[in-house]
């Protein structure tokens, strides 16, 4: 017996020793790879950050000079250069400039500093600015009087498309040096900068400044390329990197051009600088490896095994079971109990990514822990809950009927939402559930397949019980497969022009032959799938966020169309563009639409932004702020699909809409009864009393037209008058003629 125990102990020791050696080798290799990759990433990030900082510094100063160049005081030919120079004088002190001045195209100049100002006309940088009519940044120059290193930025002054001179300013190069010095805080990475002649103009060691021989330290052994190839790239203002071996040190050298200049920023990273510390740390870890494995070898008690099980089978954040434990326990329960009563339910937190981004990971973790506690409290000993990953949870739950299941899920959802009752203004937790009913036909050994079916169902949701849920079926699988194909092709389709903007005219009820506007609608004509209905792709794009790209594409196409009409001398009709709720969560939405109308020189009064009723209910506070900004710009705003949901008349009070757009379904439902007609007529009357125009879409009969006339509706839109059409056809309806 003892002999057997000895053999067993020997085998255990041998296996542990082999495992220890393997782990040591893996750790050593991964440490070296990690250190190398870490230094590479750090070096790349630091040179990119330093470059951005330099370019931001230049861009701020260029923007200042551009703003001055557009000032009528400096583009006025009747004002002398000296008078203009006096106007510029305050900027020298305010922005810490060496000097600032103004020239005509011949080089006659006046500046706040008298040192050889008339020599500007002979400077190559000035000649380049006059020739190219572009912003030019000069090489480094040294003041004959002060000895300061400076560089000059020239910005053209243009009046009536004709260049009449430049505004220029000399900046202290020391400011640039200071920016680069900030990057030289890590002993293992050094930054320097060279000019077009490969002369060092900035270096952490001042003795190398103006030294061409030390440029890039190319006297070392270059690995993987040649010196001539590197210089060729620098001349082309390309970025690149190479390895250099010098004095038993391996360096990773990166170089990149600074925009607007002939300067090249260079970083030199000593790859093995920190390896000494890494080896020391590794030896410490090796010691702990040996200690840990000796403990594992000597101690095989139940407590240790239990701890290992906990690490292997339980989620470290929430404390509930993980996916592996769920699989194991689920197979046991389904094997020993009546299978037909069980459901697999996957629960996800809607827009959890946004919660993490907007409120922080600590808040996200708080939600995950709360959900885990709720699920654990709502399952019995024959049921299981687990956290799969991220915000995905899984339940094995026993219910006799679907109604019983949905009621339990509704109760769970309400308890989860209770986390936010004291802070509901920040966000609302909304859960989505994918459900798969397990039957006797299912092979419980293939539990992963059953879990996958619940996951598929979770991607197709039906609104009910105040949370989203969906049962798995083959139609769901097929629809998700179709959606996946559309998602795989959507970016390429936008690039290749497969998306087309159609226009559906809007008519005045005073004269149904008069077009008073149109709605821009998106259509997808795919060479692979044919003509795809918006019903198939718009909700999908709403869900995956690609609707932002589509909305902005439609908006820009409308701007192009309006610009075309104006340039041809036609008075444009207002065009309405739909805007998704996704825009409410994007900070640059207002900036993007403002940039586009500015780019195409369009007055915002010709564009109407349509927001659906569901957008309003999503987040009223955010919407009020965005609408205020939109109105300040001058856009018209309409509430689309009014009446399609549970509309609140308070919205007409709280939100400053210009137009109320009645939903087609609302029109059909309300005009069928006397009571309905009274309701819709009072809504129109109320809207007009507060100066809101009313348009009705989906008009299909003359009886509807007569009724809408009677109650004072302003405009109509629908197939009775015109279907959505391509731009050329719409322009024919407007009697706009183009060659």
Fold and architecture overview:
- A hairpin with a 6-residue loop joins β19 and β20 (515-526).
- 29% of the residues are buried.
- α1 (2-69) runs antiparallel to α7 (275-298) and α10 (352-359) crosses α11.
- This protein folds into four domains: 70-175, Beta-Lactamase, CATH 3.30.450; 176-270, 2-Layer Sandwich (Beta-Lactamase); 305-467, Reverse transcriptase/Diguanylate cyclase domain (Alpha-Beta Plaits, 2-Layer Sandwich), CATH 3.30.70.270; 483-733, EAL domain (TIM Barrel, Alpha-Beta Barrel), CATH 3.20.20.
- It has an eight-stranded mixed barrel, surrounded by five helices.
- The protein has 24 helices and 27 strands.
- The termini are far apart.
- The chain has 739 residues and is α+β, with helices and mostly antiparallel strands.
SSE layout and pairings?
Blueprint: H1 2-69, H2 72-75, H3 81-94, E1 99-104, E2 109-111, H4 124-132, E3 136-137, E4 141-142, E5 149-159, E6 162-172, H5 173-183, E7 189-194, E8 200-202, E9 221-223, H6 227-235, E10 240-246, E11 249-257, E12 264-270, H7 275-298, H8 302-313, H9 323-336, E13 342-349, H10 352-359, H11 361-377, E14 384-389, E15 392-398, H12 402-417, E16 431-437, H13 447-458, E17 462-464, E18 467-471, H14 474-495, E19 499-508, E20 515-526, E21 530-532, H15 534-544, H16 547-567, E22 575-578, H17 589-599, E23 607-612, H18 613-618, H19 620-633, E24 636-642, H20 650-654, E25 659-662, H21 664-670, H22 674-689, E26 693-697, H23 702-711, E27 715-717, H24 727-733
Helix pairs in contact: 1-5, 1-7, 10-11, 16-17
How would you summarize this macromolecular structure in one to three sentences?
It comes from Clostridioides difficile (Peptoclostridium difficile). It contains 24 helices and 27 strands.
């Amino acid at each position: 017996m003892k002999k057997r125990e000895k053999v067993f102990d020997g085998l255990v020791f041998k296996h542990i020793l082999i495992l220890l050696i393997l782990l040591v080798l893996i750790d050593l290799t991964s440490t070296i790879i990690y250190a190398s990759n870490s230094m590479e990433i750090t070096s790349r990030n630091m040179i990119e950050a330093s470059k951005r900082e330099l370019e931001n510094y230049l861009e701020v100063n260029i923007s200042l000079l551009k703003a001055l160049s557009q000032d009528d005081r400096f583009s006025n030919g009747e004002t002398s250069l000296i008078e203009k120079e006096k106007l510029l004088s305050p900027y020298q002190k305010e922005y810490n400039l060496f000097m600032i001045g103004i020239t005509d195209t011949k080089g006659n100049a006046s500046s706040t500093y008298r040192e050889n100002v008339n020599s500007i006309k002979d400077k190559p940088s000035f000649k380049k600015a006059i020739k190219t009519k572009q912003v030019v940044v000069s090489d480094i120059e040294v003041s004959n009087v002060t000895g300061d290193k400076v560089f000059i930025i020239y910005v053209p002054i243009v009046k009536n498309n004709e260049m009449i001179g430049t505004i220029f300013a000399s900046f202290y190069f020391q400011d640039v040096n200071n920016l680069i010095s900030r990057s030289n805080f890590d002993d293992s990475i050094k930054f320097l900068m060279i000019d077009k002649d490969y002369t060092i103009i900035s270096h952490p060691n001042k003795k190398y400044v103006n030294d061409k021989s030390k440029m890039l330290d190319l006297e070392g052994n270059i690995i993987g390329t040649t010196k001539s190839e590197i210089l060729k790239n620098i001349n082309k203002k390309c970025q690149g990197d190479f390895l250099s071996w010098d004095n038993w040190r391996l360096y990773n050298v990166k170089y990149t051009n600074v925009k607007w200049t002939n300067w090249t920023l260079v970083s030199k990273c000593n790859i093995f600088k920190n390896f000494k510390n890494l080896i020391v740390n590794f030896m410490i870890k090796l010691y702990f490896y040996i200690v840990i494995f000796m403990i594992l070898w000597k101690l095989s008690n139940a407590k240790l095994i239990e701890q290992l099980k906990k690490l292997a089978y339980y989620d470290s954040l929430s404390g509930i079971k993980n996916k592996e434990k769920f699989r194991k326990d689920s197979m046991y329960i389904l094997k020993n109990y009546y299978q037909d009563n069980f459901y697999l339910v996957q629960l996800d937190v809607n827009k959890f990514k946004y919660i993490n981004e907007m409120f922080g990971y600590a808040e996200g973790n708080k939600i995950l822990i709360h959900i885990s506690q709720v699920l654990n409290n709502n399952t019995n000993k024959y049921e299981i809950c687990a956290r799969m990953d991220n915000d995905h949870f899984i339940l094995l739950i026993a219910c006799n009927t679907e109604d019983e299941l949905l009621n339990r899920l509704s109760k769970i959802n309400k308890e989860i939402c209770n986390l936010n009752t004291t802070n509901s203004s920040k966000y609302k937790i909304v859960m989505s559930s994918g459900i798969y009913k397990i039957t006797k036909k299912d092979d419980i050994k293939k539990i992963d397949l059953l879990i996958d079916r619940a996951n598929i169902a979770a991607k197709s949701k039906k609104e009910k019980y105040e949370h989203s849920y969906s049962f798995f079926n083959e139609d769901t699988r097929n629809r998700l497969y179709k959606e996946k194909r559309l998602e795989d092709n959507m970016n390429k389709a936008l690039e290749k022009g497969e998306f087309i903007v159609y226009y559906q005219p809007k008519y005045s009820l005073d004269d149904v032959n008069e077009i008073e506007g149109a709605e821009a609608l998106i259509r997808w004509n795919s060479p692979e799938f044919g003509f795809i209905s918006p019903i198939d792709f718009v909700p999908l794009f709403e869900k995956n966020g690609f609707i932002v790209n589509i909305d902005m594409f439609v908006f820009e196409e409308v701007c192009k169309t309006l610009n075309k009409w104006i340039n041809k001398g036609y008075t444009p009709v207002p065009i309405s563009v739909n805007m998704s709720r996704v825009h409410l969560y994007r900070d640059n939405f207002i900036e993007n639409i403002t940039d586009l109308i500015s780019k195409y020189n369009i007055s915002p009064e010709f564009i109407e932004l349509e927001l659906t009723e569901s957008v309003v209910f999503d987040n009223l506070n955010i919407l009020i702020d965005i609408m205020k900004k939109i109105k300040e710009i001058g856009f018209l705003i309409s509430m689309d699909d009014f009446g399609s949901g549970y509309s609140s008349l308070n919205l007409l009070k709280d939100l400053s809409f210009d137009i109320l757009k009645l939903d087609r379904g609302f029109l059909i439902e309300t005009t069928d009864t006397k009571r309905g007609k009274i309701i819709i007529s009072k809504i129109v009357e109320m809207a007009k009393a507060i100066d809101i125009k009313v348009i009705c879409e989906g008009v299909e009969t003359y009886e509807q037209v007569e009724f809408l006339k009677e109650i004072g509706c302003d405009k109509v839109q629908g197939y009775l008058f015109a279907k959505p059409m391509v731009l050329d056809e719409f322009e024919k309806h407007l009697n706009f003629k183009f060659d």
